[in-house]
Fold this sequence. Notes:
The protein has 17 helices and 18 strands. It is globular. 50% of the residues are buried. α5 (137-154) crosses α7. Strands 8, 9, 10, 11, 12, 13, 14, 15, 16, 17 and 18 form an 11-stranded antiparallel beta sheet that branches. Strands 3-4-5-6-7 form a 5-stranded antiparallel beta sheet, with no helix packed on it. The chain has helices spanning 2-20, 27-36, 40-56, 106-134, 137-154, 177-194, 200-219, 225-242, 245-253, 259-266, 279-295, 305-312, 340-350, 353-362, 371-376, 450-455, 604-609; strands spanning 92-95, 100-103, 392-394, 399-404, 407-412, 427-431, 436-438, 464-466, 477-484, 487-498, 501-510, 513-534, 545-546, 559-567, 569-574, 577-582, 588-597, 614-634. By secondary structure, the protein is an alpha+beta fold.
Amino acid sequence: MRKLFAFLLFIPFVTLAQESNYFFFTPEDIENIRSSSQTEWGHSIIEKLKETVDERREHSLRVPLLEGGHLHDYFCPVHNQVFRFDWDKPHAHYCSLCDKYWENNNRFDWAWINHVHLQNRIYLTACMYLYIVTGEKQYAEYIRDMMLDYASKYLTYLHHDTARKTGPWGGKMFGQSLDEAVWASDACPAYMIAKPVMTTEEIRKIEDGYLTPCADLLLGRRGSANWQVWHNSGLIALGVALQNDSIIHIAVHDPECGYYAQMERYVLNDGWWSEGSPVYHYYPLRAMLLSADAARCRNINLYDEKLHKMLAVPASAVYADLFFPSHNDGWYGESLVAQAHLYEIAYKRYKDPFFLDVLSQCYRYTERNSVEALLNNTDIKIATVPVSWPSVYFEDTGYAVLRSGNKTVVLKYGPHGGGHGHPDKLSISIHNGDKELVSDMGTSAYGVPAFTQWYRKTLSHSTLTVDGKDQRATTGELVSFKATKHGGQVRARVADAYPGVEMERQLILHKDKLTDQFTANSSEEHLYDYVLILTEKPVFTQEGEAIVLDDAPAYNYITNATKRTASVSVSCKVGNATLNIRLPDAGPFEIITGEAPGIPPGNDRVNEKYPTHLCYPIIIRLQHKELKVETEWKF
């Protein structure tokens, strides 16, 4: 009887959705969500959603009176650690590594407000799914009440950017229009689900107080790249909520800023987003999937081959543990596991068995706990053996992945990556199947000083630094690539990362042996620093002498530095791996080691693998016109 009663509650919503032709969920979607909720895994998701709602309602539900700031400011400036959010401490922010509260900092306080809006977005989504599944009116009323509160305050928020000034990319709730769009993309579906319980006056208040002014703000923010993709997602969602085809048309078809224009301009032929970062691939990809789902009600099909390729191609670029190398800007720890929710949507919409295989691998490492899984309503068998993909290279993005069993080596040589690129041509990362031995660390939060002073420097990457300077923003060239049964080989070069210096790197992976040859040639003498960024402290048989590195500001981040001198070769242990470095033509050279900011604190899987958050650079230093380094790994 209870199930029948719940089902009857859905009839007005389904009828309303189909009569108006503006909706986010089809009747089939709703039935899938409700059917999934009856499974063991689906029931677990629903119970978790109830906990989310109950926990949120233990704290004040009042929407903040003050404008928010920038989420990247909610980090300890010393340890790059995100502060622990506390509902009761808007002006005191706890760092677990400092073991203290940071106070008297407006940027931290404003970022705290961002977290409130984030928690409210999560709360609205949870209420939405609970109303769909249970039919209990209270969840729709929770959505209505919060949306009315936002509508009463949104117009009072001042336009501002992250510096609290009036900038071209500012918002109202947040310091960025980007964040406004993300919030709208999730809030609008919740509003539409709850709309049948609202009065005409309540609908008008929400439309006039939040939906319309937010749409006006985003229409005035004509940007590009991942920002504009999210602007478009927010606009499509707002257009559906306002039943306004003009807004939807602009978001999809505008020749400069629309969905199709961004896809044409920023999606490379090999399927990667052009900013060259796994984080900045999946970040706009979620917006594209939300756009595609929302646009269905207007008979606009955005689920095309290009979107399919964006989902399929990156899956072949991961390490054995399904993490990605952390190229360019973005949090360390991006993985297929973290994006399993997107592949739930991908399989539901495309029915490609490859996406089912991806999900099967992901759920070896995590529970099936996303709300998107409810929409998919497909039983998934967890894979019993790790994935085994071949060596591959990405022609347009410009990096190669060599694999031998569970071991992976990556060479990065391609385009800079726009505003989120790093000066690190011919950099490498090495993964032993369990963790990185040589890491591309990505970045800390953008509000932390080390973001620009260390993580974005050539020195913090496993490549060549010349004369203590950063490489130019440039593009390297693939010379050759060959995949083999037990690994493969790749060779790439770059001619203009440094004026007058030509660089080339060749990697050969065969079973558990990696041979790495790096050469640099110039008609003039230079200070060459060949760098390997290690995740474990190297162990040498020879003691070093303490030194202070002050060649350039980035070198100051390397502490406890020691120097050794060798001729021809030097060996060390890195965890269970052995490393031999030879300079056959150089004569005496220096080996400098030390400690520096490493992989920033991240999710639990990252913190378990890299608990110290330090890296251990090895610098092979030579003053010469030419450099030839031959490195052999056994791992």
